[in-house]
## 1
Amino acid sequence: MADLQPVRGTHDLLPDDMRAHRHVSDTARGTAALHGFDEIATPIFEFTNVFARTLGDTSDVVTKEMYTFEDKGGDMLTLRPENTAGVCRAFISNGLAQHAPVKYFYSGPMFRHERPQKGRLRQFHQIGIELIGAAQPLADVEAIACGHAILTDLGVVDKTVLELNTLGDTDSRAAYREALVEYFQGHLDKLSTESKDRLTRNPMRILDSKDEGDRKIVADAPIFSDYLNTESVDFFAAVKSGLDALGIKYTLNPRLVRGLDYYCHTAFEFTTDALGAQSAVMAGGRYDGLIGMLGGQETPGVGWAAGIERLAMLSGATPTADRPIVIVPMGEAAEAQALALTRTLRNAGLRTEFAFSGNMKKRMKHANKVNAWAAIILGDEELSKGVAQVKTLDDGEQKEVAMANLSAALPLLRAGDRG
RNA sequence: GUGGCUGUAGUUCAGCUGGUUAGAAUGCCGGAUUGUGAUUCCGGAGGUCGUGGGUUCAAGCCCCAUCAGCCACCCCA
């Protein structure tokens, strides 16, 4: 066992992992593009303020999970724990308000100092979309529809449930919050220690508590829907009817709240029970206050993020690498010829490798080991005749093909093999 | 951050109540005569038993610490 361990909660993506990973991000990128979301990339680190200001100083992410450090110039920087704040910062920095509404897709690493578990890493990867500058409920529907389509394309949508809730607008939320605090204050002695803490930091979180004592108290707590104003109710109704129109199923979950302060109105989460305690696969919502908090002109936005590792685990699909052709030259003259041939075949778009060491047996073995679908054998005899022996490895059949015809003939020989 | 389980060859694991040179499978390397792989046969390399202390005549097995993985909580993707 090597004594050099990777940093806790980080993972190497070896080719098999990488392919599974790419399968998720490539599929998502393609489907997002189909929905009009173009890819952007923002820096992996930002000034700490970008996150501290937007995520709120009560959230767990900010208070204990960020990788924050001072750089050599004395600036406080933070490795991004999520990408929405970065995208909104970019929106402001680049004066993109003039192009609003804009639709962006992103994919990349995020960092959170949490205790690792399966499906929960310190460096993990997310895909996500942001739709900035559209205040209409249809924008929320569009964002959810895009996410739903991606889950469908990945073949995991059946393993998930779309949970939906509204957090209302600022007024509704403030009124409800006040009522909640007042209610729980009256039951302070019976609340769990954790929930007492939540009461000051994020009272709505108490609704989600797993503590039995808490649950009893929660049962009689004020209900959010009683505090929603007409605007909030109408907005939510529009989102729901949009989803209905698209045939996207959802279940209402009044307990679905958000740890991050900037969310309002629509909150949604595609959850699964296939990943243990890590049930959230794709989560998002509306964040109308975020850009204002960052110092930009008040601009509405909606989006979601999804964990690539979790999606990859859910889908279980591990695409295999394209099988190569291996050229097996015997003798110096053949090796020179083989080099030229690799180039010809590669130019023709055929994945080609060169078995350059050992006797013929070794080279054939190599071809087998790299899972080649065909070996091209080139020796003195073949050279003198201007041909090559093409052996298809699955059926063991060998055919003589004129050198000049190789790149045209190979795809036909492979037609029977679609590995 | 809190609590619990686990940690033996590249990989998956075995190793009896502590007792001589720690095993298997698979993988890897080499061989079974000349230009043919994946099957078969033979041979070989590879582990300071996560790491550091301690108890003991003696520790992979016991104790402590530490690191990592996993599970639950917390939180979240």
## 2
Amino acid sequence: MNLDFVLRTEIRKATDSLFGQPVDNLQIQPTNAEFEGSHTLVCFPLTKISKKDPEQTATAIGEYLVANSGIVSRFNVVKGFLNLVIADKAWVEVFKSIYSNKDFGLLPSNGKELMVEYSSPNTNKPLHLGHLRNNFLGYSVAEIYKALGYKVHKVQIINDRGIHICKSMAAWKLFGHGETPQSSGMKGDKLVGKYYVEFDKNHKAQMKELVDKGVSEADAEKQSPIMQLASDMLRKWEAKDAETLQLWKTMNGWVYEGFEKTYKRMGVDFEKLYYESNTYLLGKEEVLKGEEKGIFFKKEDGSVWIDLTSDGLDQKVLLRADGTSVYMTQDIGTAILRFKDFPKIEGQVYTVGNEQEYHFKVLFLILKKLGYQWAEKCYHLSYGMVDLPSGKMKSREGTVVDADDLMQEMADEAEKQTRELGKIEELNEQQIKDLSEMIGLGALKFFLLKVDPKKRMLFDPNESIQLLGHTGPFIQYTHARIRAIVRKAESMGVKPTESDLSQVTSLEDSERDGIFILNNYINKLNEAARDYSPAVIANFAFDLAKGYNQFYQSIPIFNETDAVKLKFRIAFSEVVADVLKKSMKLLGIQVPEKM
RNA sequence: GGUCUCAUAGCUCAACUGGAUAGAGCAGCUGCCUUCUAAGCAGCAGGUUGCUGGUUCGAGUCCAGCUGGGAUCACCA
């Protein structure tokens, strides 16, 4: 039974019968805890058609529903709020329809396709905390849309070319002495990152020397020998110089090997990778075509621009005077390429930090002006920066939190606490490691996903490593706890059937509350997709786990002598565990059978 | 300076998009394990929602102004 739909239909009938007008946009909200009931109809807006004051309006509707709806057993009116008590047998019906649907929470295919881009790192340094938020967010949004019946294509664009990688290459050439991941035992991305830092160090020193000799800071920046070497390598790369290309391929290869391990541990995946070295020349043709159509204009020096001042934005360069592309040009080309590669996608989601909001605003506007209808379905999933208690992460100050290190610390902490609690006698060493990994990563992912993506957030290492309270492990724990009950019920031969459930006539408060939360799952799923916000799912899962624990503490399940009630409670437990597992899966978090 | 964005309990976050006496977690205090996993539950305490006005039956939410953070406004990506 779809309670929300039935309730709306019944109230619609009520307004039609009482006031001669069926109302569709009813305001229904959860009832405040202090009043009896679960659903509250806000009656202020209805006074226009009822021609009565809010209390009278509410009372009239309440009386009608009790007499005619069959699902409302009582009501009370507080000011203009009509608090409805849904009959227990209606709640049982709601529960039965969830229990009997094995695919509850997984909508059938809707035939639509969507692309989600996320991660998209540079290849000159390892992944850090900011990338973790990005990866977890993008992955989760993709999973949420999948649950709603979309076919989702996860992609990323790897920024594998440009001056930044040439810097690492230059430093390696000067100081590397042929060092490789194999010879040093370092993870490939870490090794390349080391030379990026090495570049910076030398560059700074050389700059200082030049400045001391009276060279201006800006000139010194360019004139330092190591920067000259890097620039030279970039020129050679663009000229397809064999030796430079070889070194570039080798060092990028090291990075990919390292990233591969990190992605695997994060639990994220991609259907297709785009490399900037393949796409950086795209878009130029589009811009030239756009110039012919008069969408763009050429300045005297030959550079091509778009004027967005009438849209409240500025002018933006698209082709340099020498005819080369800029970032925006590439992104235009890449977007078009993706719609060619995946013709059925209705839009793209770009998971990129909010410092690029202006960029995407301009990008989507340009695509629209070029006549691409799908531009309106492109969305910049813009997320706030992750701050540390000490402030912003700064590579220069060494405050960058490395992704690999952080995941390891989380797993270590989880293992430490798991061993301290000592509920794991029957687990072997490998199982303890696996469980710790699951808990550590669950804590990390939940911590980063529970906050509204749009908001800037604070990452306090001490708090993130907590496994109590509003955390992933709290939900994992609740799941494990329920599974223990279900296993016990199975061993006792307690097997609920639908006909058992039909005999349930009354419910305890905590059971009703639990069904109420479960019943909200699909709404939350839609809300999370609409807002591109895994936080909605994270908070739902927390509320469900919290609700179950209240039930668990207030009712000793196996003390129940009434067989029907016992079976209902087992069925209820099974469903809660199942929905917890499904919702956590949308966050990329696994859930254990025991912990 | 222009544009955008944020400000809620000591701390970290919610608040179903305009609804009732603003809710959780952490930290603090008090209870609950001889019974299904205490990584749990119950309770106490904690608030002029940055400030000032406005819109209306009703504002943390919408509008204006102010204060204070942040981002952005490159022929970088």
